[in-house]
Each structure stands twice: as C-alpha cells, then as structure tokens.
Amino acid sequence: MIEQWSGSPGTSSPTLTHPKTMRAVLLDSFGDASELHAGTVDSPVRVNSEVLVKVAAAGINPLDAKTRAGNGVAYAIPSLPCILGYDFAGVVVETPFAGHPLNVGDEVYGMMSVPRGAGSYAEYVAAPTLQVARKPKSLSLVEAAAVPLAALTAWGLVVELAKAHEGQRMLIHAGAGGVGHFAVQFASYFGARVTATGSAANQGFLRELGASTVLDYAAGPFEEQVSNQDVVIDLVGNVHDSTGTRSLSTLRPGGLIVNAPTGSWPTFEAEAAAAGMRATTFKVAPDAATLAVIARLIDSGDVHVHVDRVFPLAEAAAAHRALEGGHTRGKLVLQIAALPF
User: Fold this and answer.
1) What's the CA gap between 243 and 232, in Å, rounded?
2) Which of the 8 DSSP states describes residue 67?
3) Is the pTM higher than 0.85?
4) In contact, 58 and 145? CB cutoff 8 Å
5) What's the confidence (pLDDT) of residue 326?
6) What is the pLDDT of residue 339?
7) Using CA atoms, how far apart are residues 120 and 130, in angstroms rounded to an integer?
8) Which residues, in sequence order, are bridge partners of residue 26?
9) Which three-class secondary structure state does DSSP give residue 206?
10) Which of 185, 198, 279 is nearest to 232 (CA)?
C-alpha cells in the first residue's frame, strides 16, 4: 500500500514512496506460454521526462504472444529474462518536476516501448511523458488497461491511413477482436459505412459496435457478398484461408488495403499492385495526445471497450493460452494489483 509522500511543495520530483523491488511476469526463454512465470525484480528508476506509475492492470496483445514465442519483436530484446507487455493503467507515483501536467495520484493509462525497455506485466513502469495520458474517467483501471495499443492501432488504420469519412465504404476483418472492435467504432463514428467479418456468435456484438453489414466468415466466401469497397482493414492476412488475397476482389479500382498483423501476408504489396490497388502496412506508436482524444470519445459514450476476461498476474501463462486459442471478443487483461490501491 502506498502511503507516504516524499518531497514538499516546489520539489523538482514529487513522489510517493515505493518499494525497491516488485513482482513481475518474467520470460526466461522464448517458447510456449509455460515460459512465463511470476518473479521478483528491481523496481524501475525514473529518469529525465519519465513518469513512474504503479500498475493496476496490463492489456494482453497478440504481439506479446508472438514475441514470447520467439517471433514478433523477439529479435530486438537485448537479454533474458525480460518483461513483456505494452498496455498499462495505474496511478502516478513520481513525476519529473513539480509543474508537470500529470500529478502524483493521477489515474493514467499508456503504452510502453517494448523491447527498448521493460514492459507492463509488472507492478511499476517508468514511461516517457509522451506515452502516458489520463485514463478515461468512465473506465475502471482494469478496463482502461485494455485500450492503448488496440485503440491506437485502430486509430492509425482507420483515421490516419484510411481517413474515415461520411459515405466511405470500409470492410474490416476480425471486427470483434481487440483492434477490430475499436476499428469498427472509429469508422462508424466518422461516418463510414462499415462491413465487418466475424463469427456467428459475434454478429449482434458487431452491429452494436456500429457495423451496418455483418458477415459470418464461416457461412460462405465474404468476397461473394461484398464488393466496391473503398478500404479494407485487414486484421487477418493470409494466415487463415487467404483472407488478405481474397479481399483484393472486394475493393473498387484503386482502393486501399491496409494489412496490420506483422508477417501475416508477406506478398501483399506486390499482389495489391498487380490488382491495381493501393496497399500499406502500419506500425503503432505510443501517443499520449491521441490517447487523450480516445479518452474523450470513451467518456462521451461514442466508443466502448470490451474486456473479455481478466487474469491475475500469476496466471499470465493461462492468459496467453486463452489469447492464442482465438475467439477473444475485445481484449484480455492481466490484473497486476488488488484494487483499490
């Protein structure tokens, strides 16, 4: 329990006391989910413009599982053991200076820069100011932890690249997933006419998110049911039934396809060019300013986050197995600390 203030008014680095060690989920070697285990490590030390945050919960993303297995960004991890995790939500316990816009005690959310530093599967993170924003007031810390990476990715795909607008026709694959359920909402909010693919169980959920047309991917070829799209947001690629390649025939001439999952369709640019389509990939970056905009959309009720399941820190391996099992609606979250704290 954090109880004591250190410092005084005007102190350059206002803080709350915190322990020198912390609990974290450690990865000792690359492999299956059993390689994850809870352990004790030194707490991070805040430097320069960083904010120190006591973490309540961390979001779990497919990139975490890919990296754990030796893919993803595993090649850039300097040494093992390491701490995975991009998303976090928690409470500020130390700031760089007294006049900093974030104050000790503020509830915040943000995104870490794994593998350049330790991740968020831990009781504390030290994050650059530009990667941390006040969390949406309407969300709990656990719900807020499900937002950053998925919502920032969806924003980049739909708003920055596709430039979603009134009357635009947009096909979004895997619309009920972590990134997908934000992508459908952002596209709908900005006026696009959204067609989303998903399982039979998620048809109603996708309509609630704002999709005007919902296609059950198991009920028949989607490319026979939709055409003349301006944009395809491809969150699957060719790892399942050549979804990416088949999507090209759903686009109007000169339409845009955005492929997001790393390595899911290595030949997509060449195939798109041969079909007369535009194509690009996308890589998400931590961005506090955009997180602040997303927080306002959430608090206004225009955007919602869906948390499928919450796992305690000690069950990180089970959380990864659940993610890799597929069919997650929205996001999975790792609860790091007992609440409230």
Assistant:
1) 11
2) H
3) yes
4) yes
5) 87
6) 72
7) 16
8) 37
9) helix
10) 279
| C-alpha 9, offset from chain centre | 36
Q: Which of 238, 236, 249 is nearest to 196 (CA)?
A: 236
Residue 67: pLDDT over 60: yes
> Tell me: the pLDDT tens digits for 157-177?
999 999 999 999 999 999 999
Token pair, residue 10, equals 């005007």
Q: How far is CA 6 from CA 16, 45, 52, 108, 127, in A?
A: 6, 15, 14, 20, 20
124 with 44: CB under 8 angstroms? yes
Average pLDDT over residues 303-307: 98
- The confidence score (pLDDT) of residue 262 equals 85
Q: What is the dihedral of CA 339, 176, 289, 260, to 10 degrees?
A: 130
d(CA 154, CA 144): 16
Q: What local confidence, expressed as pLDDT, does residue 318 receive?
A: 98
* CA 105 centroid distance within chain: 24
* Residue 110 pLDDT class (50, 70, 90 cuts): very high
| Tokens coding 96 | 């760089």
**Cβ–Cβ < 8 Å for 77, 24:** no
DSSP state of 156: I
Q: Measured between alpha carbons, how far is 59 from 148 in angstroms, rounded to an integer?
A: 8
In one-letter notation, the amino acid at residue 56 is A
